[in-house]
């Protein structure tokens, strides 16, 4: 195998595969939206401290964003873990807590589960959440601050 060959390594369950490129463990982030012609999967360095919004922009994925500071809520996304163990919860910023609460996407119960039980909330702001070290599905509507319609 040469240094340009991509290979995958099985994790605990055989149907989930973690890509390894040049010896670096990668997370697969799949973006899905009605405004995309098809779902787009990209590799990201597992544990990288870049935001989902930065990853989307780097790959020409048009997640709406107005402030990039967690205050406007325009980059609302729904994140679903594709690995059985899923990613660990990441701390929500104060701006994100307020914005998600005002928009009805963060209840006290969901916040408590995130902070106490390390269970990630389903809705986040792409400008505030880091790329996790697990395979995830990121769904967005394509309209600023509008929840993805899961009935499609």
Automatic annotation (TrEMBL):
Cited Gene3D superfamilies: 3.10.20.30
Domain of life: Bacteria
InterPro entries: 2Fe-2S_ferredoxin-like_sf, 2Fe-2S_ferredoxin-type, 2Fe2S_fd_BS, Beta-grasp_dom_sf
GO molecular function, one term: 2 iron, 2 sulfur cluster binding
Domain 2Fe-2S ferredoxin-type span(s) in chain numbering: 27-144
A Pfam family that the UniProt record links to this protein: Fer2
Name of the protein in its database record: Ferredoxin
Organism: Pararhodospirillum photometricum DSM 122
